[in-house]
Structures are given as C-alpha cells and as structure tokens.
Amino acid sequence: QSHRYGILRRASGSAIRKEISRSDNQSGIWRCWANGLLILLSRCCGMEIWKDRWHETVRLSEERVQEAMFKKKSNGKNTYGIIGLGRFGHALALELAAAGADLVVLDREEEKVRELREYTENAYVVHALDKKTLSETGIQNCDVAVVCIGEQLDISILTTLNLVSLGVPTVISKAASAEHGEILEKIGAQVVYPERDMAVRLAHRLEAVRMLDFIQLSEKLNISKMIMPERIVGKTVLEANLRGRFGVNIIAVESEGRLIETITPDYAFKKGDIAYISGSKDGLNKLSDWNGKA
C-alpha cells in the first residue's frame, strides 16, 4: 500500500508541476493544485471522483496553454499556421519567422519539426490532420493558415476543408494542378501555384534578353524588371511614351545605385537604368520585343 501511495504521490506531483509550468494564470495555478491534491487523496481512498477531477485539470491546462500561445501581442502582428514542411512550407516558415511573425507549424516528420523549433515554440509533429487533431494544436486561432501539401490531393483537400470548418479567417492552399486548385477554391481557400508561377517567371527571363525578372500578379496584371535600351537614354518619360505605345506604367527606376520610387514625366533616362514596369502580359511582351531590338 505504501509503495502504491509513493507511486501515486510522485505521479500526481509531476502532473501538478506540469500544470503549473503550462499555466500563465494565477487562478488556474491554484485550481490545478487543488485538483491535483484531490486526485491524490481520492485515489488513495479508492474514490472514483479522481477521474472527473483529472479530466478537468487536463481541460484547464489545455485552455491556459492556448490562451498563452495565441494571446495577441501589442504589436498586432498576425499569427500564421503552416501545415507541411516540404521545400515550399519550410522556406515560407523561415521567411515569416525572419519578418518576426508568430508561427504554428505542423508536419509528420520529427526532423523537419525539430529544425523549426529554433524559430517557434509552436512546432508540432502530427500524424493525422483531422479536425480534432488540428484543433488540439490551436491552429484555429491563427489569422492565416497555409496548406503546403500539393502532391497528396486527398490530404490537401480534407485539411483545407477542416481548416475552413474550424473558422480560420484566411486559408491558403498550394495546388499541384488547375483541377486541384478549382476544388480548393470551391471549399473556400485561396490558391497558389508555386511551381507554375516560378516557371512563368523563368520563361520570361529566358525569352527576353533585357528582362531581369517577371512576376504575374493576375491574368491581367504583371510586373517586369528590365534594363532600359540605349535608344531612350537622355529622353524623358514623357518623350519615351511607353504608356501610349505599349500600355504599360513605370513604377520605379534603379539609377546609379539608388531606387527612385516616384517617377515624374520629366525624368530623363540614364545609361544602365533598370525600370520596374507594370502592365498586361501582351503589353510587356511587346515592350520586351521592342527593347530587344535596341
């Protein structure tokens, strides 16, 4: 009997200390102590009340943990949840962490999760992505959740659906194909196509000699970064008339090592100027062809 009592005492003491360390609320600490002591006494006396108290203690602890994890900071920054730490998810997590964002990351591989624990305390190994498991991680308290699972279509779709059902304000999902993306959109997610977008950027850079980069924001709006041709050096923006000839707009210009963000009509282009230009794909392609003939 004394041996049994010693085991129970150590187990209950460990549970109590665990509850205290996970709680940031003073009243919650005292309730956990009280429940722990009652568990110890009732188990020694053979009473069944310990079961109810134990469940209450666990529930209190989980509530305190989630309150502490997702308590809004004074800086008002968003909290991001990332599911899947492949190349895309891992890179996204690192960039958000570098920007000082609060993160919750989930993956089934311990090694990938361990790497991210350097950047966030809320990194979890999960072997299922059902609604109950997701809810236990607290990801429903995030402002934005990103599903970085593209290859396994069924898991991607079900996880997205569960996040939408849990009430996450913004759910963004990676799609591997147009059909996959269409399904994700229908269940309420914003869709990204990382591989397709990178291929489009690379194709434009390879096709146009003077084009340094290309970003497709939508089907009708794109941004191109290109070196201005010799033929317009010395001319002003008004004289070059790129808007009238190609239907494009100059957003900014890199000139002699500095970035000029406000471009006036009387700005004169210099040799080696790099312009950031927005417009339709057709307009930018025509400008690129004209630029390449310089």
List the helices and strands and how they pair.
Elements: H1 2-21, H2 26-44, H3 49-69, E1 79-83, H4 87-98, E2 102-107, H5 110-116, E3 123-125, H6 131-137, E4 144-147, H7 153-165, E5 170-174, H8 178-186, E6 190-192, H9 194-207, E7 211-216, E8 222-227, H10 237-240, H11 242-246, E9 249-255, E10 258-260, E11 274-279, H12 281-292
Helix pairs in contact: 1-2, 2-3
Describe the structure.
The protein is an alpha/beta fold. The chain is 49% helix and 18% strand. It is built from 12 helices and 11 strands. A 6-stranded parallel sheet has the order 3-2-1-4-5-6, with helices on both faces. A 5-stranded antiparallel sheet has the order 7-8-11-9-10. Helix 8 links the parallel strand 5 and strand 6. Helix 1 packs antiparallel against helix 2 and helix 2 packs antiparallel against helix 3.
- In N-to-C order, the SSE pattern is HHHEHEHEHEHEHEHEEHHEEEH
Low-pLDDT regions: 1-27
Quaternary structure classification: single chain
| Share in helix | 40-55%
Mean pLDDT: 77
Record field, number of beta strands: 11
Radius of gyration, in angstroms, nearest whole number:
28 Å
**Biggest sheet strand line-up:** 3-2-1-4-5-6
Provide a count of the helices.
12
Which structural category fits the helices and strands? alpha/beta
Residue fraction in strands: 15-25%
The biggest sheet, with number of strands, parallel, antiparallel or mixed sense and barrel status, is:
6 strands, parallel
Spatial shape:
elongated
